[in-house]
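Handout, page 2. Input:
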Amino acid sequence: MLDTSDKKRLIRSKGIYLLPNLMTTAALFAGFYAIVASIDGNFDKAAIAIFVAQIFDGLDGKIARLTRTESDFGKEYDSLSDMIAFGLAPAIVVYQWGIERLVETGPVWGKLGWLAAFTYTVSAALRLARFNVISATTSKQFFEGLPSPPAASLVASFVWLAADLGWSGTGSLLLAFLVTAAAGTLMVSRFNYYSFKEIGTRKQVSFTYIIIVPMVFVLIALNPPLVLFCLAASFAISGPFYWLWRKVRPAKVVEVGPEADDNNYRDQV
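Output:
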């Protein structure tokens, strides 16, 4: 039999274990709400809901680590939640906003439209599956392929910006198609994306970050859809640019010992 103190500790441990899963459930709800809002034609609310899902998605892992309640169940549940909030919801939101109207420009474009939305969804599923398999063996400094939350940010912020500016022409529909297809392609690419995990683990943060972070929040407050789209697009193209930079930069020459010059020893880093 458990005494009163043991029962209280057991209840408390269960409550702590439940907390990160509640955050995951909140992210899942936000993704579901984004789908419903887009069906009702509330595209700005749908886009905002996807960003809210990202906030909860970022909290669940941190809470689990702080309370030492990480579990295989939580990881799997988080993955399923991410699939809904960042894989399915953005595709439906952008499809409902305008991609479905590509059929007005011709039957071929109509088929390409829903194919782009589906490609985004299946790319998110493949990206999440790949992350679950290789996350334990890869570098913590970089992600391989565009993570699904930033990809969702790119699509959601575009829809939010387009709805805010009243875009509805053929050009904006084609741009939505390109953004969706690009986000899906980058998720399954081999491009490296900086993870920003090192910043959170440092005991001392650079003064530059202390200045930049508040400025970013101020800019977001001034024009949320435009600034968020610019940030998401910049991060999305950082992977290809980093790959290109590594290809064209000159190899570093490392001399090893006094005899290195005589032997013409070169170590490409």
